[in-house]
Specification:
It is a single chain. The protein is mainly α. The chain has two domains: 45 residues; 138 residues, no CATH class. The protein has nine helices and no strands. α5 runs antiparallel to α9 and α7 runs antiparallel to α8. The longest helix has 31 residues. The chain is elongated and about 115 Å long. The N and C termini lie far apart (99 Å).
Length: 212
């Protein structure tokens, strides 16, 4: 009999109402947090997920990069690097005569007993001193705002000539060294690499379109 009374008490209307109220309170608390998270003003305004879509009527707020215009804008900087590189090139050539005498042995192979060797200059004199150095000296030293449109065109043409001549010079001196019958020690190889690296730097800063 006591056991039956306990079961009746557990299933009484009062006990059922109490359990139902507890469930509603727990369920209500979960829904409250869910609704609050969905309509939180900070999330709705600053959420990085929400962003306006670009359409044909809303163009992007950036302009495509123009390498030519960027080069012209920074042309005085490139010219400064070219002139300093030319000074470094001349310094290396003058400081290491033995190295370039060995390289000179390569082009001497192309002369014949009937040619006047005094008129056959090495690649440095033939390419750099005869053309590149003189072209670099023509480059102006002033801000881009001081250039007229004609001066910009003339300077770009000079830079194109420097690049072409320097590329030929690099090719020629590589051939002269390769064909030389002399042996180059490790130090001379390092100096020659420095020399050609400076020459490549001049070439790089002479081209307005594709930088290597």
């Amino acid at each position: 009999m006591p056991r039956r009374k306990a079961l009746r008490k557990n299933y009484s209307k009062k006990a059922i109402r109490r359990r139902s109220a507890t469930k509603r309170k727990r369920l209500g608390r979960g829904l409250w947090f869910t609704r609050r998270a969905k309509i939180h003003p900070v999330l709705s305004v600053y959420s990085p997920i929400v962003s306006p879509r670009l359409t044909e009527s809303t163009p992007p707020d950036f302009e495509p990069f123009d390498p030519y215009a960027n080069y012209v804008l920074n042309m005085p900087t490139h010219i400064g690097i070219i002139k300093r590189s030319a000074q470094a090139l001349e310094l290396i050539y003058n400081d290491y005569p033995e190295l370039f005498n060995k390289i000179r042995h390569g082009y001497m192979k192309h002369t014949t007993e009937y040619s006047d060797r005094s008129l056959y200059n090495d690649s440095y004199a033939r390419d750099y001193e005869a053309f590149i150095k003189l072209l670099i000296q023509k480059l102006p030293n002033k801000d881009i705002q001081q250039y007229s449109e004609e001066e910009k065109d003339d300077t770009l043409n000079i830079l194109a000539d420097i690049r072409s001549r320097s590329s030929q010079f690099l090719n020629n001196i590589d051939i002269d060294k390769f064909e030389s019958g002399q042996n180059f020690n490790e130090f001379e190889e390092i100096i020659f690499t420095q020399f050609t690296s400076v020459l490549r730097l001049i070439i790089k800063h002479c081209q307005p379109y594709n930088f290597e």
